């Protein structure tokens, strides 16, 4: 008896399962971008072909949906770190939306020690190094590690801004399809997205312009600033700055003003080299209230803060090592600064 006769009618005509990337393409072609993204999230990034990885970045942009944010945001919460003069610190396992809200509202930031372990840190460090090395070797790019996102004529980001970043050791995460897929999977697996979305009270989005893989040289350019100067003071956002190497001693960390600021301070004056920068003279005046802090960070530590936080890259003479980090600004969909170009998670 032949094989077909041995099979039941149902088994005889069962077609092979369609590969997930092919199904994702069909969903995207039908405008069902969120479903296509979620389908591919079940696959390791290394198992997704390059055309699909490239398309996935564009699907994430197309999946943006404007939202109506909570009118009462942010809810007032008590200070979970009363009396703290330094940036408040917690362990990675302690991170909650309530602690994040309290730290930002009362101290401007939250320092999370050991957000990820040594093995995870090493894995992300390899990801950042591979993406930046590939970008600097060929800025045209056609690789999972570096393929420049196509910028439209009216997009807020520009090829010149991209080249300036790449030349100085920074790559937009969206320009590295493999890095973006791996990093988003990592953020979700570790609950970072859930905590930030609970804090924001709505779905969060990354952006092309403000999500960056960084390799900071010892003599990096630095300036005091609040990101709200160019993102907007009234947006709803959290930056998760994750260091992948020890810094703050012989590698540039972050200098910070450890107080909550409820608005933008004067910029473009008192020695500032750009309109958005806060001059050293202005910072000296602010130090009469609180002293500048330059924490030492261990690889795997993270600093979380919003657009009103005053800080700068801690570059200074005498540093000898590079610093690896990933900067990820999460924006609430209701106030997304569209010139930064959204990326769905």
Keywords:
alpha+beta; nine-stranded mixed beta sheet; disordered N terminus; 345 residues; 12 helices; 32% helix; single chain
Computed CA radius of gyration, to the nearest angstrom: 22 Å
Helical element count?
12
Major beta-sheet overview: 9 strands, mixed
Mean pLDDT: 92
Structural class: alpha+beta
Termini gap? 53 Å
Order of helices and strands: HHHHHEHEHHEHHEEEHEEEHEEEE
Helix content: 25-40%
What's the overall geometry?
globular
Q: Any overview of this molecule?
A:
This protein is α+β, with helices and mostly antiparallel strands. The chain is 32% helix and 17% strand. It is built from twelve helices and 13 strands. It has helices at 3-6, 9-12, 20-29, 33-40, 50-62, 97-107, 118-137, 159-167, 177-189, 192-200, 228-231, 280-286; strands at residues 89-91, 109-113, 170-172, 204-207, 211-216, 224-225, 237-243, 253-256, 277-278, 302-305, 311-314, 323-332, 342-344. Strands 1, 2, 3, 4, 5, 7, 10, 12 and 13 form a nine-stranded mixed β-sheet that branches. Helix 6 (97-107) links the parallel strand 1 (89-91) and strand 2. Helix 4 (33-40) crosses helix 5 (50-62), helix 5 (50-62) crosses helix 9 and helix 6 (97-107) crosses helix 10 (192-200). It is globular, with a radius of gyration of 22 Å.
